[in-house]
Amino acid sequence: MQWFEQLPFIVSQCIVLMSVFILKTLITRFSDVEPLHIFAFFCRQLAEKVNKPDRNSERQQVISGLVSIFITLPPIVIILWLFEDFVLVPELWQAMLLYFAIGGFGLKSKSTQIAQAIRGQNNYKAKQLAQSMLLRKTDNLSPLGLSKANIEAQILHFLQQQFVVVIIFLSTDALVAICYRLLLEMHHQWNVKQPDFNHFGKPIRIVVNLITWLPSRILGIMLLLTTIGQNFLLKWRLSRGHFFVLNNDFLVHLFALALGTNLGGVAMYQDKKVRRVSFNDSAKPSDINDIANANKQVLTLQLFTIIIGAFFVSLAIVS
User: Where, by residue number, does the polypeptide cross the bilayer (predicted)?
Assistant: First the structure.
């Protein structure tokens, strides 16, 4: 009975979601500028004002990062929440907020362009394209390094900017989804991998990791299910050590195993080497063919997500 009572809401959410997906897919073909780039600029300017790693202690930097979250997010969310009462068509308001919340639509096209540039030995173009989607420095990356970085970006962008947003939207509403996306944008701008944000970015990293932990494990299990018949149990045994860790290593490790390539390792951030966990070390280094395979794997996960969503909608209708 409860399912039946919620049916109009579930159907409405699904229609809004599909409409936004179609609209944003079409718009991205003409412009890949994310609508939250202004908020990202604000986050960078705020950090320049309050983050002083050369003068403040580690504890002061952590407190500054925490305070920055509270002075940035609540005012925006309160304004959006109050404005919602003046909207005559709630579905249009939900669609607009979801449009801002969801992202990562131009990644497949850009990944293909990077692969083509590497194949044509136009490394400068490949590095420029990669820099627009990566936090790390790309100037010194080899073709293999560019391939690895792009593959990691594909799965993480899909997780953070689409999969988590969809789960939050369908389980709550678009206001909560845009709230998460703003937090994610803060996390990207104040990422602890950058030396200047080692301590300032810790609070937002913990918040985002807590939000994405369960969706990351769900997506990882979905990825694992797509490898049934291809050393399924071995992949689980190799990756399960990351399952309860508060980061995305479980998903990235499974992605490396599914593609049969090596991911992770050392990367340059603000001209400084950051040693990260390396995944699937015994496999071959990533190359341009793996970029295409990663594209296909992400597309499979997208279709898997749609099928599961359709199943639950059907279950609601039958109930």
Answer: 6-27, 62-83, 163-183, 204-230, 250-269, 298-318
